[in-house]
């Protein structure tokens, strides 16, 4: 199954130079995820019983080449829960991108909403790249949950006029 991407962007941000940089990084990540080699690794990692760490490991070298650092500390020092960390962080000229990877608990435990909230409160990032499974199975015999479309629908409401958070854009990648 080919990776999909949905871009949720405030209209007031879409034409900015900052967003063009974010969009280019998203395009680069998306192109990488669409390669046959990356697709095969992701398919193998997205099996019942595996964690998001397995999915992360499939593209971590590429994310590092883009400039993302893993488990960046200190981004939430102004909050009582200083232990919060994104899966990856990339600073971009006075702003930044949080990159989060989810698998088994994406909507069941509202991890997609937690990731949006982390980006909302992060003083160092206004952009979110979120990787979620298109279809999720916790065991081989269960019917798949359509996680990607559920996340796009849930997070999309935060990008409607009048519902904005501090997150300027979220790029959701369905693997």
Strands of the largest sheet, in order across it?
1-6-5-4-3-2
Q: How many E-type strands?
A: 6
- Provide the succession of SSEs: EHHHEEEHEHE
Number of helices: 5
Work out the helicity level.
25-40%
Low-pLDDT stretches are none
Beta-sheet strand percentage?
Answer: 15-25%
Q: Which structural class best describes the helix and strand composition?
A: alpha/beta
Overall geometric form: globular
CATH topology: Restriction Endonuclease
Number of structural units classed as domains: 1
What's the architecture in CATH terms? 3-Layer(aba) Sandwich
Describe the sheet with the most strands.
Answer: 6 strands, mixed
Distance between the termini: 8 Å
- CATH C-level class is Alpha Beta
Rg over CA atoms, rounded to whole Å, is: 15 Å
The residue-averaged pLDDT reads 92
Structure description:
The structure is a single chain. This protein is an alpha/beta fold and 175 residues long. It has a single domain, classed as 3-Layer(aba) Sandwich (Restriction Endonuclease), CATH 3.40.91. Helix content is 36%, strand content 18%. Strands 1-6-5-4-3-2 form a 6-stranded mixed β-sheet, with helices on both faces. The longest helix is centred in the first third of the chain and has 17 residues. The termini are close together.
Can you summarize this structure?
By secondary structure, this protein is α/β, with parallel strands linked by helices. The chain has helices at residues 17-33, 36-45, 52-66, 111-121, 147-156; strands at 4-9, 69-70, 88-92, 95-101, 127-132, 169-174. Helix 2 packs antiparallel against helix 3 (52-66).
């Amino acid at each position: 199954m080919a990776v999909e991407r949905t871009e949720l962007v405030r209209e007031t941000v879409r034409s900015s130079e900052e967003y063009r940089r974010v969009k280019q990084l998203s395009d680069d990540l998306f192109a990488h995820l669409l390669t046959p080699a990356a697709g095969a690794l992701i398919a193998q990692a997205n099996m019942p019983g595996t964690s998001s760490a397995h999915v992360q490991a499939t593209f971590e070298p590429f994310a590092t080449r883009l400039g993302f650092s893993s488990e960046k500390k200190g981004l939430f020092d102004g909050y009582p829960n200083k232990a919060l960390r994104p899966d990856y962080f990339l600073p971009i000229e006075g702003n930044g991108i949080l990159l989060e990877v989810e698998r088994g608990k994406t909507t069941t435990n509202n991890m997609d909403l937690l990731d949006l909230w982390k980006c909302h409160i992060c003083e160092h990032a206004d952009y979110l790249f979120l990787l979620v499974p298109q279809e999720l199975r916790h065991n081989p015999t269960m019917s798949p949950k359509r996680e990607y479309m559920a996340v796009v629908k849930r997070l999309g409401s935060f990008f409607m006029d009048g519902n904005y958070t501090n997150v300027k854009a979220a790029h959701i990648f369905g693997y």
